[in-house]
Amino acid sequence: MDVTQKVGETITVPAGMQATAFATCDPGLKAVSGGFQSASPSGAGPYPTTFEIGPNNDWFVTFYNPTAVDAQAFAIVCCSP
């Protein structure tokens, strides 16, 4: 299976709040799985609460940030023809 990865835009998850990151496959490709990455210092959050393939060949991840400062994260989608 030929799989490519696409990284979504980095989002800011406000302190004490939730936010959702998306990564979308290019036209003609289908989302088959995905992942996520915190762009904040190791162990500082935010933490994923849900993640799944969306209806538009995308992958979305909802993050919760339990800290007192804003944090950043992004989604990664794996795409296949």
Mean pLDDT: 92
Compute the gyration radius: what is it? 13 Å
How helical, in percent, are the residues?
under 10%
Output the structural class. mainly beta
Q: In angstroms, what separates the terminal alpha carbons?
A: 9 Å
| Strand composition percent | over 45%
Number of discrete domains: 1
Major sheet description: 4 strands, antiparallel
Write down the oligomeric state: single chain
For the secondary structure, the number of strands is 7
Short description:
With 81 residues, the chain is mainly beta.
Properties at a glance:
single chain, mainly beta, 81 residues, elongated, 58% strand
Characterize the structure shown.
This protein has 81 residues and is mainly beta. It has one domain. 0% of the residues lie in helices and 58% in strands. It is built from no helices and seven strands. The chain has strands spanning 4-7, 11-13, 18-24, 30-38, 47-53, 58-64, 71-80. Strands 1, 2, 4 and 7 form a four-stranded antiparallel β-sheet that branches. The protein has a three-stranded antiparallel β-sheet with strand order 3-6-5, with no helix packed on it. β5 (47-53) and β6 (58-64) form a beta hairpin. The chain starts with a strand and ends with a strand.
What is the fold's blueprint, element by element?
Layout lengths: L3 E4 L3 E3 L4 E7 L5 E9 L8 E7 L4 E7 L6 E10 L1
